[in-house]
Amino acid sequence: MVSTPFKVASIGLGWWSDVLAEAVGRSNGGIEITSCFTRSPDKREKFSKKFDCRNASSLEEILDDPSIDGIINTTPNHAHLETTRAAAKAGKHVFLDKPIANNISDAKAITKVCKEEGIILSVGYQRRRES
Length: 131
Prior knowledge:
By secondary structure, the chain is of the alpha/beta class. The protein has five helices and six strands, in the order E-H-E-H-E-H-E-H-E-H-E.
């Protein structure tokens, strides 16, 4: 068991964010969701109660929180560049749901800003059942 968990915030709270949060719950304490944000107050409240985390009133609140190490970004694809860039500039590592972006220029911009800011970017994509 890890003594100090990697603290993350979940942003973009659709059905997939619940799947990922449940996976975090199986991490044996290595990762902890401490905050969440989406534009819908009802979705924020439901997620925060289900996963016992703080209901942030804005993305900026999450990005300004020094206790948060990274974000799980399940925002809509068209928002990946904006949200990932903001997280990287705030020093937050990013787990980004696939696809990385809707076009190559946004994908390059995402990887560039993460590299420039020294941020670990992980894109959630697997092919284990496609053999």
